[in-house]
């Protein structure tokens, strides 16, 4: 600590402490800085100690070793079960049975890798949360997914999602693409029906007027769709509507 | 996806077949066939967009219905002509029937042709 001004402390406190620019005399500023640096030191100390505690416990439970369960005759191998599915016990998923174990013997340190194999090993259930941090909504057994990451939604029906980006937007654009593909078909269907109406009019002016009205309305609907799609195509970034 | 793909026949993995009614196409004519666990050929709907293949088949059926209706109304107009017995009003009515029947047929076929052509050019 020196008293040449607060800017000297900036490299240390950068990003952590916002220094008051004016309104403080130098001793006052020094007092504030000392207080804040104490606070920072305690935070840094905490940040060093807590991971050290965790890393200490993690290093004690390396995949090769595990510890006896406190109340049962099983060995808690919670930390090694991922590596060895053949030894997996369906009754107590986190524990291995210890075979040929001497009665009354206290085993404090068991090597899970050398345990006797158990006969039945269950097949692992299909993982519903495959991506870390993702929340699967919708049907967990659905094989099609809209969006990725946190907003991913699984669906049983193939909506034609791209499986990228936000799930809701992906689904909306998939539905827009689906409806766009059907516009031409619907227009043809409507015109063909109008043609049948016209055929069946038998020279009746009212009936043929109804058929012509249907053709007009179909043309208007097609125009509305074309303009709506053009505006949407202009607003939305490329690739979403294709 | 454009309209041309709708009207293209898929190469079926198995023969869907099915009975015939006045030579009309089936609703599943554009759907691919798959063999299920009972070794029966069934139409396969894999995506939500396959609904339009069914709608396209229905439009195809409508076109044939329109052609049949046009033929029927032309015959009807002809009978009207025959039974007009020289009366100008009845003859005019009969001519209108035949003209409207032909116009309706032209509208149906032209709609299908033009929209398919325009959609296919995109």
Topology:
The complex is a heterodimer of chains A (242) and B (122).
Chain A: H1 10-13, H2 26-60, E1 65-68, E2 74-76, E3 95-97, E4 110-111, E5 137-138, E6 144-146, E7 153-155, H3 167-199, H4 205-235
Parallel strand pairs in A: 5-7
Antiparallel strand pairs in A: 1-2, 1-4, 2-3, 6-7
Chain B: H1 3-7, E1 33-35, E2 41-43, H2 51-82, H3 88-121
Antiparallel strand pairs in B: 1-2
Helix pairs in contact in B: 2-3
Please, could you describe this protein's structure?
By secondary structure, chain A is an alpha+beta fold. Chain A folds into three domains: 6-60; 65-114, no CATH class; 137-235. Chain A contains four helices and seven strands, in the order ααβββββββαα. Chain A has a four-stranded antiparallel β-sheet with strand order 3-2-1-4, with no helix packed on it. In chain A, strands 5-7-6 form a three-stranded mixed β-sheet. In chain A, α3 packs antiparallel against α4 (205-235). Chain A is elongated, with a radius of gyration of 35 Å. Chain B is mainly alpha-helical. Chain B has one domain (3-121). Helices cover 58% and strands 5% of the residues of chain B. Chain B has three helices and two strands, in the order αββαα. Chain B has a two-stranded antiparallel sheet. In chain B, α2 (51-82) packs antiparallel against α3. The relative contact order of chain B is 0.13. The mean pLDDT of chain B is 80. Chain A binds chain B through residues 157-160, 174, 177-178, 181-182, 184-189, 191-203, 208, 211, 215, and chain B through 1-3, 6, 46-49, 51-52, 55-56, 58-59, 62-63, 65-66, 69-70, 73, 76-77, 92-97, 99-101, 103-109, 111-112, 115-116, 119.
What attributes characterize this protein structure?
heterodimer, A: 242 residues, alpha+beta, 3 domains, four-stranded antiparallel sheet, three-stranded mixed sheet, 4 helices, 8% strand, elongated, disordered N terminus, B: 122 residues, mainly alpha, two-stranded antiparallel ribbon, 2 strands
* SSE ordering of chain B: HEEHH
How many domains of chain B?
1
Report the total helices of chain A: 4
- Round the Cα radius of gyration of chain B to an integer and report it: 20 Å
SSE series of chain A: HHEEEEEEEHH
Distance between the termini of chain B: 10 Å
Which segments of chain B are poorly predicted (pLDDT under 50) over 5 or more consecutive residues? none
Mean pLDDT of chain B: 80
Helix proportion of residues of chain B, in percent? Answer: 55-70%
Provide the structure class of chain A.
alpha+beta
Q: Tell me which protein chains meet in the greatest interface and how many residues each side has.
A: A-B, 31 and 44 residues
Structural class of chain B: mainly alpha
Largest β sheet strand count, sense and barrel closure of chain B:
2 strands, antiparallel
Average pLDDT reading of chain A = 63
Strand content of chain A: 5-15%
* Main β sheet profile of chain A: 4 strands, antiparallel
The global form of chain A is elongated
The portion of residues forming beta strands of chain B comes to: under 5%
- From the structure provided, what is the oligomeric state, counting identical versus distinct chains? heterodimer
């Amino acid at each position: 600590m020196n008293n040449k001004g607060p800017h000297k402390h900036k490299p240390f406190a950068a990003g952590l402490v916002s220094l008051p620019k004016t309104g403080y005399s130098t001793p006052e500023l020094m007092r504030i800085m000392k207080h804040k640096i104490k606070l920072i030191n305690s935070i840094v100390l905490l940040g060093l100690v807590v991971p050290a505690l965790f890393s200490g416990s993690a290093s004690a439970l390396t995949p090769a070793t595990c510890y006896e369960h406190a109340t049962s005759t099983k060995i808690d191998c919670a930390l090694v079960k991922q590596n060895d599915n053949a030894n997996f016990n369906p009754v107590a998923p986190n524990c291995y049975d210890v075979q040929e174990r001497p009665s009354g013997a206290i085993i404090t340190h068991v090597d899970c890798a050398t345990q006797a194999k158990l006969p039945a090993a269950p097949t692992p259930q299909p993982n519903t949360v495959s991506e870390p941090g993702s929340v699967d909504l919708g049907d967990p057994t659905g094989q099609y997914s809209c969006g990725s990451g946190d907003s991913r939604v699984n669906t049983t029906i193939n909506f034609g999602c791209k499986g990228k980006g936000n799930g809701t937007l992906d689904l909306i654009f998939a539905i827009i693409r689906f409806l766009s593909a059907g516009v031409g078909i619907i227009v043809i269907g409507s015109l063909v029906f109008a043609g049948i109406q016209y055929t069946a009019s038998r020279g009746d002016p009212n009936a043929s007027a109804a058929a012509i009205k249907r053709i007009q309305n179909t043309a208007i609907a097609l125009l509305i769709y074309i303009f709506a799609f053009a505006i949407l195509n202009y607003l939305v970034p490329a690739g979403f509507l294709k | 996806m454009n309209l041309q793909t709708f009207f293209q026949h898929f190469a079926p993995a198995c023969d869907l077949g099915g009975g015939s009614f006045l030579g009309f196409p089936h609703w599943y004519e554009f759907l691919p066939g798959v063999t299920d666990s009972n070794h029966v050929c069934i139409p396969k709907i894999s995506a939500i967009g396959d609904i339009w293949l069914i709608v396209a088949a229905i439009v195809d059926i409508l076109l044939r219905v329109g052609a049949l209706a046009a033929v029927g109304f032309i015959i009807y107009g002809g009978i009207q002509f025959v039974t007009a017995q020289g009366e100008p009003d009845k003859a005019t009515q009969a001519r209108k029937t035949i003209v409207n029947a032909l116009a309706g047929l032209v509208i149906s076929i032209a709609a299908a042709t033009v929209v398919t052509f325009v959609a296919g050019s995109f």
